[in-house]
Each structure stands twice: as structure tokens, then as C-alpha cells.
Amino acid sequence: MAIGLFAAFWAVSILFVITPGMDWAYAISAGMQGRVVIPAVSGLLLGHFVAIMIVAAGIGALVASNPVALTVLTVIGATYLLWLGFNMFTHPSVPNAGQVQESNSWRHWTIKGACVSGLNPKVFLLFLALLPQFTDPAGSWSIPVQIIALGVMHILSCGTVYFLVGFSAQTVLRTRPKAAQYVSQISGLAMILIALLLLVEQLI
Less CB within 10 Å around the terminal CB: N or C of the chain? Predict the structure, then answer.
């Protein structure tokens, strides 16, 4: 696979990664909770990886071509994000210096992170539309392998940015409880807005 295709894909993909969205909101929320940035971001990356594997396996094209399946996926994802955003807004994360995170909390943040990215239909559709465009049918690697390779590059970029966002929130906001509360509520509102837009699109 040509290095030029990797470089071109990375240039496009990094623009999506550095744009604040639901993943950023979740990473910031984890940072304010203390020692859960690693499991939270790992969960986000796991969700991205699952979406990439679905596209690489060819299932993505089948789902995208089935209006009913795509609608069901969108409604489920939007409903989950709506619930998550509402909880984040009504119960904003407030830093607690003495807070100790148990192992079950780590599992909880990992699973929730995987759901945030894995149930986001926009992530799925982005991979479906973007990844195949940067593959080379004449290349020595098969198309599924090329898609996985590009996807792994995207995941590495996501991991770098999301860890920076999460740990920065942990460093900056944990000493400013009021600011942390406002940021958490804004993040919750952002999730609610995105979820409502997804649902409105389906109604239209």
C-alpha cells in the first residue's frame, strides 16, 4: 500500500479527530473524575475499532444500503447519547481530590466509552464513506487489510488526542470545581444536541 495514501488519509482523519465532539466530551468528563482517563479513552478506541472491523468485513455496506437497519442503528445510538448527555448535564462531574476509583469503575468507564463511540452512527458512516476512498484496488494488500491498516492509524491519532484532552482536563479542571461543573454541563448539552439532531434527521 502506497505511503502517499496513508499520508493523505491521515491528513483528512486528523481533522475529524481534533474537532471537539462527543468523544472529547467523554474524555473531559473522565479527566474530571480522576483515574479513569485510561479506561475511558480505551473504551472510545474500542468502539472505533469495532466500527472499523464492521466496515472492513463488508457488513457496513450492507447496513448502509438497508434503510431500516440504518434507522434502527441511528435511533439506538441517538437514544443512548441522549440519555448519557442528560445524565452528564443533570449530574455534572465535580472533581474530588480524594476520590479513589475502584476496578468496577474502570470497567464501567471502558464499557460506556465503547458505547459512546460504537453506537454513534456518525462514526460508522464516516468510516464507511472515508476508508474505502483511500484504498488501492491494485495494491499488494487486500482491500479489507488496507481498511484495517488505515483504521489503526486513525485509532492511534484518536488515542493521542483523546489522552491529551483527558489528562489536560484532569490537570486543569480538577483544581477548579466550578469550571469543571460548567464544562461537564456544556459537554452534556453537546451530547443532547447531537442526539436530537440525529433523531430529527430520521424524522425528516
Answer: C
The total number of structural domains that make up the chain:
1
| Dihedral, 129, 130, 133, 134 alpha carbons, nearest 10 | -160
Domain assignment of residue 18, yes or no: no
Name the grid cell of 138: 491494485
Q: Please indicate, yes or no, if residue 56 is contained in any of the structural domains.
A: yes
Dist CA 85 CA 188 (whole Å): 4
Q: Is the pLDDT of residue 98 over 60?
A: no
H helices present in the chain, as ranges? 3-17, 22-33, 37-56, 59-64, 67-90, 103-118, 121-130, 143-173, 177-203
Residue 202: predicted pLDDT: 72
Structural domain harbouring 135: 37-91+99-203
Number of residues that make up the chain: 204
Checking if the pLDDT of 96 tops 60, the result is no
Is 69 domain-assigned? yes
Nearest alpha carbon to residue 64 among 3, 124, 4: 124
